[in-house]
Amino acid sequence: MPLKYGVWSRIVETTGNVVKKMGLDYVYNRTLCSQLLLYKNKAFPFNQGFTEGMDNPYTWWSSIEPDPKHLQEFALSLFSIYPNSTSCERRFSTCGWITSKRRL
C-alpha cells in the first residue's frame, strides 16, 4: 500500500529535489525547509501584512528581511518566470521566416 503524503510533505520533498538539482547542500535545504515552516505558520519575518492594491507579491517578498535569505531569493526567482510563450513563439516565427520557400 503506497504511503499517502499530505501537502506539506510534498512541498518539503519537492523543495529537496529542487535544491538537489540546483547543486546546493544539505544545510541549505534544511534552512530553506525551516523558512518554509515559518512561512506556513505566519511567523516572523513572514508575518508582515499584505495590503491589496498597495502591494504585490514581488514587493512583499522584497520587503521582508529573513536571515538567511534562502526562501526570499527562491520566491523572487519564481516571480521572474514569465507564464507565457510569446518570446518562444516570436523566435519560431523568425526561424520560419528565415527557412521559408520565399526566403530560399
Structural class: mainly alpha
What is the β-strand count? 0
Straight-line distance between termini? 60 Å
What is the overall pLDDT average? 80
Beta-strand fraction estimate: under 5%
Round the Cα radius of gyration to an integer and report it: 20 Å
Give the biggest sheet.
Answer: none
Number of helices: 5
- The shape, in one word, is extended
The helix/strand order is HHHHH
Number of domains: 1
What low-confidence regions span 5 or more consecutive residues with pLDDT below 50?
none
Helical fraction: 55-70%
Write the layout of secondary structure elements.
Layout: H1 7-21, H2 26-40, H3 57-63, H4 70-79, H5 86-98
Structure description:
The structure is a single chain. By secondary structure, the chain is mainly alpha-helical. Helices cover 58% and strands 0% of the residues. Helix 1 runs antiparallel to helix 2 (26-40) and helix 3 (57-63) packs antiparallel against helix 4. The N and C termini lie far apart (60 Å).
